């Protein structure tokens, strides 16, 4: 802000902030794009690839991530250990069961630029499967980012007034017996 | 079983349904027009109300035909299908549970088309939206009763999902996705809802 002193303005521009994202019921790809943009520093007008202006991101509740479509069964994560016979293919569901942090980590890793800065940026990404965060990270957080996907309401979460306000579209015929 | 289905039919959301306390019997005067409010209702389809009266040793079970509360006028009353009558043709999705719940049974199944009066394409769209809503977990109270499950298998992994087109057990993993020009895409949503109104700039992507 222009009302700050020069040193305060300098500090505010170049400080490394900590962002929090709640991944509950969110698609991991959308979470990963938000993370990748902020880890590189592309959300800042002072961005330059060599100026190390990326921020820290904390992702929580990755255990409750939601894939669209049938990706839990169809999407396959492959890896090769380098040894003969070391080719492993796991579906997203199997990988998530084995390690709930892996899907988000792999998505962000694939979205970062393929250079030597990638590992430093991954070190600034902190993923937690539940919503329990360690105290030192909690103390550093500055902003929570809004969730990319709107979580739909379950039928049991609607109040009776909202249910009554919705008009009935059709009346059943007199002879019909509801089972 | 019958009692359970009666309780279920009582519980389905029909307007004008009144539930009384079960158990205690109230004695009425014979022959007078008894107000329905103080009566005990055992079974109600919303159109008929069964009232039980106890006079000494005799029990009288009567069915009173209720006046259905006047539904507000639909904007297009001339159309045959209820969705066209309310001008909701291309405007609903799997998230509109209040709309979808009007066409399903208490155990989650869809009502027949000849009863609801839907046209064929809308019936199919509602069917696929209901399927997607079930798989997304938006209709938690409309699950079918498990058939006398003695051996409770280990609980399945509860994974959050949405816009699932195919049933979970029927899908195989895509081990070889192929190159960009011949990629095997993963299906999301349904092509039946392709004509839905889209207020954003990007169109709906069905092949991920």
UniProtKB/TrEMBL annotation, chain A:
One of its GO terms (cellular component) is mitochondrial large ribosomal subunit. It is found in: Mitochondrion. CDD domains: Ribosomal_L13. GO terms for biological process: negative regulation of translation; translation. Its main location: mitochondrion. SUPFAM superfamilies: Ribosomal protein L13. Gene3D superfamilies: Ribosomal protein L13. It comes from the Eukaryota. The keyword Cytoplasm does not apply. Keywords: Mitochondrion, Ribonucleoprotein, Ribosomal protein. One of its GO terms (molecular function) is mRNA binding. Belongs to the universal ribosomal protein uL13 family. This is Large ribosomal subunit protein uL13m. The lineage of its organism: Eukaryota, Metazoa, Chordata, Craniata, Vertebrata.
UniProtKB/TrEMBL annotation, chain B:
InterPro entries: Ribosomal_bS18, Ribosomal_bS18_sf. One of its GO terms (biological process) is mitochondrial translation. Coiled coil: none annotated. It is found in: Mitochondrion. GO terms for cellular component: mitochondrial inner membrane; mitochondrial small ribosomal subunit. It comes from the Eukaryota. Pfam families: Ribosomal_S18. One of its GO terms (molecular function) is small ribosomal subunit rRNA binding. Belongs to the bacterial ribosomal protein bS18 family. Mitochondrion-specific ribosomal protein mL66 subfamily. This is Large ribosomal subunit protein mL66. The lineage of its organism: Eukaryota, Metazoa, Chordata, Craniata, Vertebrata.
